[in-house]
TrEMBL record:
Topology of the protein relative to the lipid bilayer: Multi-pass membrane protein
Segments passing through the bilayer: 70-91, 111-129, 141-160
Domain MARVEL as annotated: residue spans: 37-164
Protein name: MARVEL domain-containing protein
One Gene Ontology cellular component: membrane
Domain of life of the native organism: Eukaryota
Lineage: Eukaryota, Metazoa, Chordata, Craniata, Vertebrata
Keyword Membrane: yes
Region called Disordered, residue ranges: 176-196
Family matches, as InterPro entries: Marvel, MARVEL-CKLF_proteins
Organism expressing this protein natively: Gasterosteus aculeatus aculeatus (three-spined stickleback)
Pfam families in the cross-refs: MARVEL
Comp. bias intervals (Basic and acidic residues): 176-188
Subcellular location: Membrane
Keywords per UniProt: Membrane, Transmembrane, Transmembrane helix
Length: 196
């Protein structure tokens, strides 16, 4: 019993001594939220975008008959694309994979992608809403399509509010400029022989 209490006291002392000075290595975590590319609010919105796009796609897949197959297939393509690519963008921007991919201008990529998906998801939802039958599954798919479009629009708004427009003139990406300034000169100046 005395040995156990001595061990417990020594364990507490050792824990008290080492715990305040020991910190976790931040490099071991693969999830990086908030990061330079996406903050906590936009990360949450992107998760909701993925879920809404997936639900819209699943609902659309359960439509048995189509009155306008073009509208159905267009909505299917856009909802599936939005789900897959938003999930990929979310994984890349919230993990350490973003440093391994080789893309330097994440804000520009994120802005362009989100803008294109916002417009195409809204257009496909409008087309599907005007050309669908009266089944409840189609109405639910259209509703989730509009909700997803709204979340993409909200994401663009938050991006614009925080970062502004990512294409100011013809400037290169800021990380490219910083790398150019930090890079030492590769070529040496030509030196003339002593006599000339």
């Amino acid at each position: 019993m005395l040995g156990y209490s001595c061990w417990a006291v020594c364990g507490c002392i050792m824990t008290d001594v080492y715990s305040p000075t020991t910190t976790a290595n931040p490099q071991t975590s693969c999830l990086v939220v908030p990061s330079d590319t996406v903050g906590k609010a936009r990360c949450g919105i992107k998760v909701v975008q993925v879920l809404l796009s997936f639900v819209a796609f699943v609902l659309e897949e359960n439509v048995l008959r189509c009155s306008s197959c073009f509208a159905l297939y267009f909505f299917e393509f856009v909802s599936c694309t939005a789900f897959l690519f938003t999930l990929l963008l979310l994984l890349l921007t919230t993990t350490t994979l973003q440093t391994r991919v080789g893309i330097k201008c994440w804000p520009k990529l994120d802005f362009v992608y989100t803008g294109v998906i916002t417009v195409t998801f809204f257009v496909s939802s409008v087309i599907f809403a005007t050309a669908h039958g009266d089944s409840s599954v189609e109405k639910a798919a259209v509703a989730f399509g509009f909700l997803a479009s709204l979340m993409f629009f909200l994401d663009i708004g938050l991006f614009w509010k925080k970062n502004g427009f990512p294409f100011p003139g013809n400037r290169k990406c800021e990380t490219d400029a910083a790398e150019t300034e930090a890079r030492p000169e590769a070529e040496k100046l030509n030196t003339l022989p002593d006599g000339e």
